[in-house]
Amino acid sequence: MKKFPPISKDFPHFLHGGDYNPEQWIETPEIWDEDMSLMKEGNLNEFTIGIFSWAEIEKEEGVFDFSWLDTIIEKIHNAGGKVVLATPSAARPKWLSDKYPEVLRVNETLVRNKFGHRHNHCFSSPVYREKVRIIDEKLSERYGKHPAVVAWHISNELNGRCYCDRCAENFRNFLRKKFDNDIEKLNHEYWTRFWSHGFSSFDEIEPPRTAASGSLATGPMGDACVLGLNLAWKEFCSEQIIDITAFEKEAIRKYSSLPVTTNCMPMHIGFDHFKMGKVLDVHSVDLYPRWSSDFTGFAKYCAYHCTFCRGIKEGQPFMVMESAPGINIGSVVYHKVKSAEEQLFEAVDFIAHGADTVQYFQWRKGRGAYEKNHGAVVDHYGKSDNRVFQMVKTTGEMLEKLDGVIGTGIDAKAAVVYDYKTQWALDSGLASFAPQDTNGYFTLTRNLFNAFWDKNIPVDIISYDMDFSKYKAICLPLPYIMTEALADKIKKFVSDGGMLISTCLAATANENDLNYTGGVPGAGLRELFGLRVDEVDYYGAGAPTPNAVIAGDKEYPVRLHAELIVPDDAKTLMTFKGDILEGCPAVLTKNYGNGKVYYIGFNPGLEFLSDFLPEAVSECGIAPLSEITGDEFIRVTKREGDNEEYFFVMNISGTEEQTVSLNESFTDVLTGEKKEGNFTLKGKGFMILTK
Ligand code: GLA
Ligand code: ZN
Description:
With about 700 residues, this protein is an alpha/beta fold. Helix 10 packs parallel to helix 11, helix 11 (about 340-350) runs parallel beside helix 12 (about 385-400) and helix 14 (about 440-455) packs across helix 17. The chain binds alpha-D-galactopyranose and zinc ion.
């Protein structure tokens, strides 16, 4: 496999550092000097700075003071450190919103917010954009070629939406473009005769809105019953976030060619991360596993999210921009501190799935305000002889031995598709942007992933846009939204010899959430699957299900959805047991061209998928990694480059000792020892091996 280039060609090592706010210590510059020596002592090499520094750089409109930033970047450089430099657009100075209230976001009740918090801005505001452009260009001009600066960090965890008149008009423009300025096309696609919702002009359209108190019982505060419009609004909000990122990148590019990223949170479904990936040079993510609450569960969480992040840029290694060295306060109520073992395991778990950095939030605890007690590399105590600092130091020691891993990738032949549009549409019934997962989309993608990963079968998570031809098997979770063009791409993949595994709800609606008539699967996929879905039984989240699926002497529970399927030329492999569906086909297969499809006519759980998927894909030559095998809790991933192979062996049990069999001879990357034969790994243990 061909290696990917390192994030920084001048620094092909693991960046090990984190979010640093030197401006909070501007009155005590001796702290800055302590920070530099602590960085070296702790085996760290990077600071991410400037994220929330706008007010300190531009104290009044148009008056810029870069002197403190000059000093700190020089200090980092002189200490041998690197800088990931942020644009400060995630939080604005107060003067900006006082003078130009249009920069403030309008919330769903159509009230303009006051100054406060962060990310409280309107992405459409020309003033906001202009002020961001000016400061970004100045930063880029001043530091874009500085030898210490290795990458740009745009904003911070971009999210949210604004309901101001300007955003509403931009939304209408988005729709005008989508429907060639033809309102009748929109009326047709959005089925607006329903409840007399027809529009006579684009001017009449407002962003869909159901404020918290706006249930039908109390009276809706806006309209969210046109599902196509809801979907378009989510798509528009996503594009706005991606567009402002591209806008900032353009400002940076005026003077600097360094790689650009923005830190994403996988659970933020307010934008399409795959589309965002096209704007970024490198993807980055913030991950906060809570090891103490469920060690195995969070090992799986990290594996899934890191695989997702690797998928964003088609296998390219990504940055873990933030992780908590101590407690995480804010997003979760309960987050116990990490043990030293958990800290090391976490870093290895990230890297095993494609991370090329290990960074923290935060470097040093501030003395006041919202995040003063959030875990940090440097505590208020300020010294290095405390537990967390020592844990981080040990992590740095390990990372220094892993240079060879930089740029290596994972060669997977199986993939699971994740489609934001489908996820948004499936949640649309709730007119909600929260990842409610009522239809189990997210859970199902995770279960599909786990069915492979649990067996040490390399697997990718991809979008519909990606090249399918490098895969032998592709899984489609609830492929409810389907276009004809996509259906053609899927059919070509199968007829060229690929294996496609689809779950229920296939090709139900087009890209505007308008249902197909004449039978589902629509969009031409009935021919591929060789069946017609006559009815979908929906049990509701958490509801008891009357049906199960029978496979030989095993029975699998059915959750959420089960379909009444009428086969055309597909062969039935398993049937349902239970009320109306008794004896009806549940799992079917069909050969198509040189390939094969499986159709799972229900929303399957992990137990079914773990038994079914590895066996199904074995027919096309997909197998677990064979070089290293082990007990139930042993997970193995392999990162490879042009000539090298690294094996990450992890015991994802928090407590149980597990046996690992090395079926070839290896060298332990961390100790240099030769290794072969059987080993035991204690709970939370890991090994990094090479051949
Ligand atoms: C997010 C943000 C950080 C910080 C952390 C706290 O990840 O990006 O600025 O607020 O949460 O966990
Ligand atoms: Zn707005």
